[in-house]
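In response to the reviewer comment on reproducibility (Comment 2.3), we provide here a single inverse folding case reported in full, input and output, so that an independent group could reproduce the run without further information from us. The structure tokens appear first.
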């Protein structure tokens, strides 16, 4: 890249919306980054990728594209956009061509925690509210985890089944933050996906909600990615 990369686009995962990025947003904007947050509906991978590409279209110059959890699938597909200089995964799925969330979670390793996903209702999924904190947000204050549980964004079954056609990590440099205490995506699975993507990888203590609980670690990795491609 012939110019500094100062744009960051943040993409949330399933069951949550973009408001969880506020701590990361505050740190990055304080350092001079222009940060945009994609508020996608998690109805289908295609529509979520379209929403992300609209935000990328609006950027002035190259961007670092960041995804958490299911947002990793979205940025893997959307990251081939011409303006994307780097892709960053935060405790996220990093699928290869033809893979989806559904295929990646189909055969969990023995002893891996099973996310408390309730049976689908009208094509949408929610996490069991009573087990939300333990599985998703174990390192957040109880009141904050309860709020997240009660404000869940229903996750479309179609979004889980959406397959990636051209993984951005095959053509764009990538970074990965492993959440060491994650009970949604097992840390060994995160490490394996990061290694496959040849991502620059760091680890941080933290639950699946590491982007909320450890915003400094997340922001630092995003800044390193931006500096590396500037």
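Designed residues, in position order:
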């Amino acid at each position: 890249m012939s110019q500094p990369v100062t744009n960051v686009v943040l993409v949330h995962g399933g069951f949550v919306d973009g408001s969880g990025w506020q701590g990361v947003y505050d740190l990055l904007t304080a350092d001079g980054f222009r940060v945009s947050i994609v508020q996608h509906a998690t109805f289908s991978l295609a529509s979520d990728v379209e929403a992300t590409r609209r935000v990328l279209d609006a950027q002035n110059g190259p961007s670092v594209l960041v995804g958490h959890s299911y947002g990793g699938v979205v940025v893997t597909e959307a990251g081939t956009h011409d303006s994307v200089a780097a892709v960053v995964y935060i405790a996220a799925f990093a699928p290869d061509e033809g893979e989806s969330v559904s295929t990646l979670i189909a055969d969990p390793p023995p002893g891996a925690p099973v996310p408390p996903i309730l049976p689908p209702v009208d094509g949408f999924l929610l996490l069991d509210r009573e087990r939300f904190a333990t599985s998703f947000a174990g390192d957040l204050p109880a009141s904050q985890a309860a709020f997240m549980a009660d404000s869940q964004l229903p996750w479309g079954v179609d979004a889980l089944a959406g397959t990636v056609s051209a993984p951005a990590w095959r053509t764009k440099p990538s970074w990965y933050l492993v959440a060491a205490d994650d009970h949604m995506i097992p840390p060994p699975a995160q490490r394996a996906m990061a290694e496959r993507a040849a991502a620059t990888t760091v680890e941080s203590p933290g639950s699946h909600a590491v982007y909320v609980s450890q915003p400094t670690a997340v922001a630092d990795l995003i800044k390193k990615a931006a500096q590396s491609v500037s």
